[in-house]
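FORM 12-B: Structure-to-Sequence Request
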């Protein structure tokens, strides 16, 4: 049967687009579904502040009346201006292992980009770095996380077949939490604190954190991530949106903030209990009963694994031990909470500064993911 590509034009179609991955990976022991409600908020043009500077269309592939693939075509105008590219991004891409389906999906994105003056394709990427990015190319037999993409091993095979090549790679680490703090880490933290006149900020509540440093958190992300692959600065509207979305969910025992003598935020790190199993049990949906699995994982019986979600250090303090000061504080909490292991967020393979922070840990690099590119 021929492959029919349909552009998503209704909310009903968008719901099918958002849920296709759940059907494709049903029964897969490593797939962690996206949280459906978050995905819908990201894809809807009336809810995602990134549409101030992005344009996008979503496409479904049908064969014999059944959905067999999906793909998003995105142009981030700010990113293209920042990096001097004319790139159309592909994201939210999933498909059965079928050459005709894959070729039809990518031809649609490529033509969509050409029609808008683009000269290359790159992805998988989202609207911004706050969205999942990078196709898994190693670690298919490892459980995914709530903030990353999982895909079948045949995905990168199709990318190579179609002439897509490497644009950037990220690596992910799994490290064991030690039984106690290292004397070296304690000494370094004390030295850094004295030398640069820094101190830990310990918010009494999430509302205090949001009011005092909510905006500063995301401004620091903009500053510290500015030189990283494909990064585009978060807008004021996005920052306001993320403050409301994410700061109320932070567990203050799993976060650390460093400020200078003038109370300016210079570094922070945020981790979260692994929501992988909870999302699998909830099948990626809060309703009707998925909320219970999420609530249980966060507050009632948290897992012994954490995901290290986000870290940012002011550029002038990087490679000066500030990360060690911040993470030493976090590690003390992890030990007290009897956390067993922590999974890093994807880190660019050439970000040696970040990789070096884990040198003292019992760790393994257990996943690798890739952004591909192709000239149009």
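FORM 12-B RESPONSE
SEQUENCE OUT:
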């Amino acid at each position: 049967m021929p492959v029919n590509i349909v552009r998503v034009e209704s909310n009903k179609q968008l719901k099918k687009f958002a849920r296709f991955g759940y059907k494709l990976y049903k029964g897969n022991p490593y797939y962690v579904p996206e949280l459906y409600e978050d995905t819908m908020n990201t894809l809807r043009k009336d809810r995602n502040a990134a549409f101030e500077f992005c344009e996008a269309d979503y496409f479904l592939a049908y064969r014999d009346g059944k959905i067999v693939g999906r793909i998003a075509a995105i142009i981030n105008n700010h990113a293209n201006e920042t990096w001097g590219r004319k790139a159309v991004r592909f994201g939210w891409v999933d498909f059965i292992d079928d050459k005709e389906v894959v070729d039809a999906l990518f031809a649609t994105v490529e033509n969509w980009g050409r029609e808008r003056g683009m000269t290359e394709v790159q992805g998988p990427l989202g609207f911004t770095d706050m969205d999942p990015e990078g196709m898994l190319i190693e670690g298919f037999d490892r459980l995914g996380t709530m903030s990353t993409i999982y895909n079948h091993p045949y995905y990168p095979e199709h990318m190579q077949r179609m002439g897509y090549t490497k644009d950037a790679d990220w690596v992910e680490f799994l490290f064991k939490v030690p039984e106690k703090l290292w004397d070296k880490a304690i000494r370094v933290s004390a030295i850094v604190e004295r030398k640069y006149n820094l101190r830990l900020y310990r918010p009494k509540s999430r509302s205090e954190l949001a009011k005092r440093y909510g905006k500063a958190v995301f401004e620091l992300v903009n500053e510290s991530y500015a030189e990283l692959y494909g990064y585009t600065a978060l807008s004021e509207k996005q920052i306001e949106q993320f403050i409301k979305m994410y700061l109320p969910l932070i567990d203050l025992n799993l976060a650390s903030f460093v400020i200078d003598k003038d109370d300016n935020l210079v570094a922070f790190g945020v981790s979260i209990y692994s929501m992988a199993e909870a999302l699998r049990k909830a099948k990626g949906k809060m309703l009707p009963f998925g909320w219970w699995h999420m609530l249980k994982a966060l507050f009632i019986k948290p897992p012994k694994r954490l995901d290290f979600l986000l870290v940012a250090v002011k550029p002038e303090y990087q490679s000066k031990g500030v990360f060690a000061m911040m993470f030493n504080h976090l590690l003390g909490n992890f030990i007290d909470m009897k956390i067993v292991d922590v999974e890093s967020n994807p880190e660019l393979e050439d970000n040696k500064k970040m990789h070096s922070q884990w040198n003292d840990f019992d760790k393994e690099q257990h996943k690798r993911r890739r952004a591909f590119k192709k000239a149009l």
